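Subgroup meeting minutes
Present: P.N., E.W., G.H.
Scribe: E.W.

1. P.N. recapped why we're keeping a running log of single-chain structure predictions: easier to compare across weeks, and new members can see raw inputs and outputs side by side.
2. G.H. added today's entry (156 aa).
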Amino acid sequence: MSHRIFTHKSVIPTTMDRMMAFHSDKNAFSRLTPPPIFMQLHRDDRTSITAGELEFTLWFGPIPARWTAVHEPGAIETSFADRMLKGPMKYWRHEHQFREVPGGIELTDRIEYDYMPSGFWAVFGRLFFSPLPLKGLFFYRHLRTRLGTRVPATGG
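Output recorded in log:
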């Protein structure tokens, strides 16, 4: 089955160690959630960024969207994926890839997704997880990653 695909890339002026540490931090997901969305964590059984489950609710104003996601290895050594087990979408798999490039680390977010076929969550998914809102979401996330992985300036 073919899924919809959304990709967002940026080169972040940082090191691989800083990028991995930022994403391994238990608070990374909440830091990467843009206002006015609020993330409420219910359970975090992750043992690393590539293993374990999370249960959380994303609050879109008064609308709660509850998710259960599993973290798993990505396609390359410096990557991981979160795949929705339960939630508002028919299918959701978000892979985070980090590659060393001139100027820092290329961060690629690749999402494979499908909407629910009908009902409230079908409309909700199309409103909040179509390409335009995803562009805004990942612009914010990459900006927060840039700020959170800054290499300190050396004094001279």
